[in-house]
Request: fold
Amino acid sequence: MSFLGIDIGTSGLRALLVDEGGAVLGTAEQHYTTSHPHSGWSEQDPAVWIAALEGAVAQLRHRPEFSGLRGIGVAGHMHGAVLLDSDDKVLRPCILWNDSRSHTEAHALDARPEFRAISGNIVFPGFTAPKLEWLRKHEPDVFARVAKVLLPAAFLNLYLTGDHVADMSDSAGTSWLDVAARDWSEVLLKNSHMRADQMPRLVEGSTEAGVLRAALEREWGLAGRVSVAGGAGDNAAAACGLGTMHEGQGFVSLGTSGVVLLARDRFCPAPQNALHSFCHAVPDRWYQMGVMLAAADSLTWLSSITGAKPQVLTEALGSQIKAPGPVGFFPYLSGERTPHNDATIRAGFIGIGKDSSREDLTQAVLEGVCFGLRDSFEAITATGARIDRLYAIGGGSASVYWLSLLATVLKTPLHIPEGREFGAALGAARLGMTAALGANVAQVMHPAPTAQVIKPVASLIDAFDAAYADFRAGYAILKSHPRAGLQ
Reply:
């Protein structure tokens, strides 16, 4: 038997084929582009995801294990609005998660207390509900023809099964879901001019959403029933890949953006701190997530203006972390999400002198990113969350210096997962396996083994606590700058 995990990313689709023990049998990737018709707009034609899926399957079909496919799970970037008419025809390109055109509509919906009270989250411009409000105002002819609104993963579920079906974790990011009750909210739908019949059927991500269409079974050379799981939003799927399912388990991601995610056994919303509180991809579980918009992207920016590759910049600092440097950095290159929910704040250095070196700037950027992630960490732990095991993932985790610094700033050991396959595609494959076999979630989504533990440097904790206090005070200084908020 084999199982297929599909991860629809913003820049490409990744497919992962595993056996019943979770061992990787094969991988395939297909890339596509994003359209930006206007400043702040971000769109994709959903047809490119179908083409990418078929291309990935074509790459994997030569493996003998593929013919024994029994389960499929789909993970996808969240919040995107795929709009279908009554014949399931796509009405316009999908408005993606990083599209900011609906900021006015998001602000108006968020001002209505029922949205935070029921969804447990701020209505951000990237969420789905404000996108439809924008459409109602600016493309009324298209809005009038909308029969179904699907998220990217649900659109692929439709292609695979022929049914409109979505999972709880992905749907929690629409601003239409009652996240505690795990169901569509009639109140939120009505207050954003939508109807329940325009929503897909909801299932848990680890349960069966349907079966693979007979036509695809024939085209893909399969024999036997193939189950399609409910699937997941990308971060919930990544949590499934790491096995972070229970209270105390979580991960921190040093990717382009930065994420601190903790699994929760109960729903603990904290929208006042710009935390995301979403359903997990398995029953009776939720997760909380803090997001910073420029984590490894801050180092990439420094690389672009110094002409040195990120690895060169970090290696110049050595492997042993130093005390907080003389230069400070505030990593708000694109605004900030948690805890400020501030789209207009911008980044800045402080303390630069004639003697400041490239290494000083690099150290400042790494420290500033760690302090930004601590903001999310503090916001989550303030809700009563405990930390038993925190994995570190993402491109920035390749730097031992950065990991040691982050562990010290968070005052928490960081577990480096063993192997390369622990992301959203593996989580999606595990969801497909669970649905197909009717297996126990705990048996399939076991925690990733730890290859290495990075411990805090105890002698520097107090110094970084003081530096973090200065960082927090610096936000107010930046906000009061005469150019703050100018676009």
User: Anything to note?
Assistant: The longest helix spans residues 358-381. Residues 2-235 form a domain with the Nucleotidyltransferase; domain 5 fold (CATH 3.30.420.40). The mean pLDDT is 94.
